[in-house]
């Protein structure tokens, strides 16, 4: 059975513009090692001009089915994500369903770098202010502003609690952050020591 999205074009149908028409095998659910590639499917969906229509169609067709009865990536969402979305819109008035679906898709497009760019403001003397809520969820992972700054800069999460040692309240400049739980003061200090041949 083929679980790839239905991309057979009908007259004036959104499927005619679907980016996945050229890559149907990518959207197959994995039944064995190497079959189905959700990450690659998401990348294709991210560039698709009819992604909202695709997801809306999937939600209509699949109804309230659990994720085991859904298959493949559709509209940029996995079966589990679509099942979660179905629960979320179950009691939403029909006229409000499309905006909720659009909001979910917008969340999927967020990357740590884009969230950082959207929520930070450079200040004088090298300080950085965070605007918005105290934490953000990106693709299912929650970050505090400081942890997001650390991860973006050093490619790893801190070992302990982060504080800013610059004295500027609320500063999230990566070079000003201190990992209080690690064996090193900052990842920057560790990297500098490594460059200087210190251990």
Short description:
By secondary structure, the protein is mainly alpha-helical.
Through-space gap between termini? 57 Å
Order of helices and strands: HHHHHEEEEHEEH
Global structural class: mainly alpha
Largest sheet: 2 strands, antiparallel
- Poorly predicted regions are 32-36
Order of neighbouring strands in the sheet with most strands: 1-2
Write down the overall geometry. Answer: elongated
Work out the strand percent: 5-15%
Number of helices: 7
Number of strands: 6
Chain oligomer state: single chain
Radius of gyration, in angstroms, nearest whole number: 22 Å
What integer is the average pLDDT? Answer: 78
- Helicity, as a percent range: 25-40%
What are the defining features of this structure?
single chain, 199 residues, mainly alpha, two-stranded antiparallel sheet, two-stranded antiparallel ribbon, 7 helices, 38% helix, 9% strand, elongated
Layout of SSEs?
Blueprint: H1 38-46, H2 51-62, H3 79-89, H4 94-109, H5 112-119, E1 120-122, E2 128-130, E3 136-138, E4 141-143, H6 145-154, E5 162-164, E6 177-179, H7 187-195
Antiparallel strand pairs: 1-2, 3-4, 5-6
């Amino acid at each position: 059975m083929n679980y790839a999205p239905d991309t057979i074009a009908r007259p004036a149908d959104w499927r005619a513009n679907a980016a996945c028409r050229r890559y149907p095998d990518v959207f197959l659910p994995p039944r064995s090692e190497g079959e189905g590639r959700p990450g690659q499917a998401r990348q294709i969906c991210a560039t698709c001009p009819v992604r909202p229509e695709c997801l809306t169609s999937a939600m209509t067709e699949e109804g309230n089915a659990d994720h085991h009865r859904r298959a493949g990536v559709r509209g940029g969402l996995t079966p589990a994500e679509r099942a979660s979305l179905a629960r979320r819109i179950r009691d939403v008035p029909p006229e409000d369903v499309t905006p909720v679906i659009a909001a979910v898709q917008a969340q999927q497009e967020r990357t740590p770098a884009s969230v950082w760019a959207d929520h930070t403001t450079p200040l004088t003397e090298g300080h950085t202010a965070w605007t918005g809520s105290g934490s953000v969820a990106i693709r299912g992972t929650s970050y505090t502003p400081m942890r997001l700054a650390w991860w973006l800069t050093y490619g790893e999460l801190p070992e302990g609690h982060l504080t800013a040692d610059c004295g500027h309240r609320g500063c999230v400049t990566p070079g000003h952050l201190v990992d209080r739980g690690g064996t090193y003061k900052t990842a920057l200090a560790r990297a500098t020591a490594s460059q200087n041949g210190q251990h």
